[in-house]
Design a protein that fits this description.
With 556 residues, the protein is mainly alpha-helical. It has 22 helices and four strands. The chain has a four-stranded antiparallel β-sheet with strand order 2-1-3-4, with no helix packed on it. Helix 3 runs parallel beside helix 7, helix 13 packs antiparallel against helix 14 and helix 13 crosses helix 18. It is globular, with a radius of gyration of 27 Å. 48% of the residues are buried.
C-alpha cells in the first residue's frame, strides 16, 4: 500500500493557504512588529517637538548660513509652543541611543528561551512590558531625565526578544519553500510601524492631547497592550500545539520541515555556531545593514529639519515616505525569492546572495548621493533617501530569512546572536551622527552618509564570499540508524558508519549475485532486501505519543 507523501514542491489541495494558521500567525506577527516599531520610533519624532530650540553659536550660525542659505517652510516652526525640555543635542542623542543599551542584553537569552520553551510567551510578555513603559513615559519625562533613560533601557530589554522569538516560531512553522513569503511578510510590520508612527507623530505633536507629544506615547502604548491579547489567542509555539489547526496543514508543515518540531531543542551547539562561516556571513550582513538602517531610523527626522528645512508636520510625513518604499520592496522580495527558488532559477544560496548584495550596493550608492543634496534640492533628497531605504528592504529575502535556512532548529538563538552584535550600530550610529554634525550643516551630514556607504560595501563583500543557504550539519536532528541486511541488524548513530558500511555498490553486487543464481523475484511480491530504521533522539517529547512516532523506515 502506497503512503501519500506531502512534499515541499506539491501542496495538497486540502492544505489551506491564505486563511491557514501559519498565515494567521504571519498576520498577527505583522501587527506585532507594527507595535514593536511604534514604541521604538515614537521618540524619534516626538523629541523634535518636546525639546526647545537651541541657538547655535555665532560661528556655527555663520557657517550654517553660508553652506545652507535656505530657511524653513515656517520660520516659527523651529520653536514649538508645546516644547517643554531644555535637553542639549548630546542629551538627545544619548536618550535615543539608550534604547540599545537594553536592546543588546536580552537578544541571546530571548532566542535561547524561545528555542527551548517557545517564542509565543517570550514575545507576548516582552511586548506587555514595552506597552507599560510607553504608557508611563510622558509622566516620567516630566519628572526626571534619569527616568527617561531608565524607561528607554527597559523598552530595549523588552522589545529585544521580538525578532529572536519570531525567528524561533518560523523555524517550526514555515515550510522551506514558504519561508521568504512568511518571514518577509511578518517583518513588513516593522516598516508599516515606522510609516504610521512617523507620519502621524508630527500631526499629534501639533494637534494631539497632553501637550501634543504626550498623546504619541499614550496611543502607541495602548494599541500595543491590545495587541498582546490578540497574540496569545491566535498563536501557538508549534503546529502540533495549535488547537485550531487542520490535520492537513499540520501534516504538510511537519513533513516538510527538516527536523522534528515536536521535540524540544536540546543543548545549543555553541562551538559549532561560533565556527560556522555561514553564521559569520549572516552576522556581518546584519551589522552592516543595521548601521545604515539605524542611522536613518534615528536621525532622518533631524536631517529633514536641519538640512532640508522641513517643518514638523512635513517632517513626520516625509520621514515616513522612505519606509513606504521599503515596505513595497520587502514584500516583493519575499514573494519573488520563493518563486525563484521553487522554479529552480537559483538555488537558495544564490538567491539569498542576490537579494542581500543588491540591498547593500543600492543603499550605499543612494546614501552617497544624498550627501550632496541640500534644501534647494528637497525633492531630489527625499527621492534618493526613499531609494536608499527601499534597497534595504531587499534584505528581507537575504540575511533576515537566512537564519532559518541554515539552522531552523536554532533560528531563535542564532538571530539573537547576530542581532546582539547588530545592536552595536544602534548604540553608536546616533552618537556618531550627532558628533559629525555639531553645526547642523549639509557638508557635515555628508560624512554621516559616507559612513553608511562604507558599511554597505564591506557587508556585500563578506556576505558574497561566505553566505550559504543550506542547512548546516550541526543544525540537523541527531538520529539513531538501524540497518537491516537480511536478518542481520547493524546499529548506528548520527552520521556514524558501521565497520563495514553498506554502500550503493554493495546493493548492486548483491542484486547481481541473486540474478546469477536465478533466485531474484519481483520486489513488489517479496518486499525490500535492505531497510534502514531511523529514530529521532527524543529526550523531551512534547506529547505522550508512542515512541515509534519518531521512527522512519527507508527501504531499498
Amino acid at each position: 500500500m502506497k503512503e501519500k507523501k506531502i512534499t515541499e514542491d506539491v501542496v495538497d489541495d486540502d492544505v489551506p493557504c491564505c486563511f491557514s494558521q501559519r498565515w494567521k500567525t504571519a498576520y498577527v506577527s505583522f501587527l506585532g512588529f507594527i507595535c514593536v516599531y511604534a514604541v521604538r520610533v515614537n521618540l524619534s519624532v516626538a523629541i523634535v517637538c518636546m525639546v526647545k530650540s537651541q541657538n547655535p553659536s555665532n560661528s556655527s550660525r555663520d557657517n550654517a548660513s553660508t553652506l545652507s542659505p535656505c530657511t524653513t517652510d515656517d520660520e516659527s516652526s523651529s520653536v514649538y509652543e508645546h516644547a517643554e525640555f531644555d535637553w542639549s543635542k548630546t542629551t538627545q542623542s544619548t536618550i535615543l541611543a539608550s534604547f540599545f543599551y537594553g536592546y543588546i542584553v536580552t537578544q541571546v537569552p530571548g532566542g535561547w528561551l524561545s528555542d527551548r520553551f517557545g517564542g509565543r510567551r517570550v514575545f507576548g510578555i516582552g511586548m506587555f512590558i514595552a506597552s507599560i513603559c510607553t504608557l508611563v513615559f510622558p509622566v516620567c519625562a516630566r519628572n526626571s531625565v534619569i527616568l527617561v533613560y531608565v524607561l528607554r533601557v527597559l523598552l530595549g530589554l523588552s522589545t529585544a526578544v521580538s525578532f529572536p522569538a519570531v525567528q524561533s516560531i518560523w523555524g517550526r512553522w514555515a515550510p522551506p519553500l514558504e519561508r521568504s513569503k512568511l518571514i518577509s511578510f511578518s517583518y513588513l510590520g516593522t516598516m508599516f510601524g515606522m510609516v504610521l508612527t512617523l507620519s502621524t507623530s508630527g500631526l499629534l505633536c501639533q494637534y494631539g492631547f497632553d501637550n501634543g507629544w504626550g498623546s504619541i506615547f499614550y496611543i502607541t502604548g495602548g494599541l500595543t497592550l491590545l495587541w498582546v491579547f490578540a497574540w496569545f489567542y491566535v498563536t501557538a509555539d508549534t503546529p502540533d500545539q495549535h488547537p485550531r489547526i487542520s490535520k492537513a496543514e499540520r501534516d504538510y508543515i511537519t513533513s516538510s520541515i527538516e527536523y522534528n518540531t515536536t521535540i524540544r531543542t536540546p543543548k545549543t551547539p555553541w562551538k559549532s555556531i561560533a565556527m560556522s562561516s555561514a553564521v559569520w556571513a549572516c552576522l556581518t550582513a546584519h551589522v552592516c545593514n543595521n548601521w545604515t538602517n539605524y542611522t536613518l531610523l534615528t536621525s532622518l527626522p533631524t536631517f529633514m529639519k536641519e538640512v532640508l528645512k522641513f517643518d514638523i508636520k512635513s517632517n513626520g510625513a516625509l520621514s515616513a515616505l522612505p519606509y513606504i518604499c521599503q515596505a513595497v520592496s520587502g514584500f516583493l522580495a519575499g514573494q519573488t525569492a520563493d518563486i525563484i527558488r521553487s522554479k529552480r532559477i537559483l538555488n537558495t544560496t544564490n538567491t539569498r546572495k542576490f537579494y542581500q548584495i543588491s540591498a547593500f550596493i543600492g543603499a550605499g550608492a543612494m546614501s552617497v548621493a544624498v550627501g550632496y543634496t541640500d534644501c534647494d534640492q528637497r525633492g531630489v533628497a527625499v527621492a534618493l533617501l526613499s531609494l536608499a531605504v527601499m534597497f534595504t528592504g531587499l534584505c528581507r529575502a537575504g540575511f533576515t530569512v537566512n537564519h532559518v535556512d541554515i539552522a531552523p532548529k536554532y533560528a531563535g538563538v542564532l538571530y539573537g546572536i547576530t542581532n546582539t552584535m547588530a545592536t552595536i550600530p544602534g548604540m553608536l550610529a546616533p552618537i556618531v551622527a550627532g558628533e559629525l554634525t555639531p553645526n547642523k550643516s549639509q557638508s557635515e551630514w555628508r560624512y554621516v552618509f559616507f559612513v553608511c556607504a562604507g558599511f554597505d560595501v564591506f557587508g556585500a563583500i563578506i556576505y558574497g564570499l561566505f553566505g550559504s543557504g543550506t542547512i548546516q550539519d550541526w543544525a540537523r536532528d541527531e538520529v539513531e540508524l538501524e540497518v537491516t541486511i537480511g536478518n542481520e541488524k547493524i546499529p548506528g548513530k548520527n552520521n556514524a558508519q558501521p565497520k563495514n558500511p553498506i554502500t550503493k555498490d554493495d546493493y548492486s553486487k548483491e542484486e547481481t549475485k541473486e540474478e546469477n543464481l536465478g533466485e531474484k523475484e519481483s520486489r513488489e511480491n517479496e518486499g525490500p532486501i535492505y531497510s534502514v530504521v531511523q529514530r529521532q533522539n527524543d529526550p523531551e517529547p512534547h506529547s505522550d505519543g508512542d515512541a515509534n512516532d519518531n521512527a522512519r523506515t527507508i527501504q531499498f
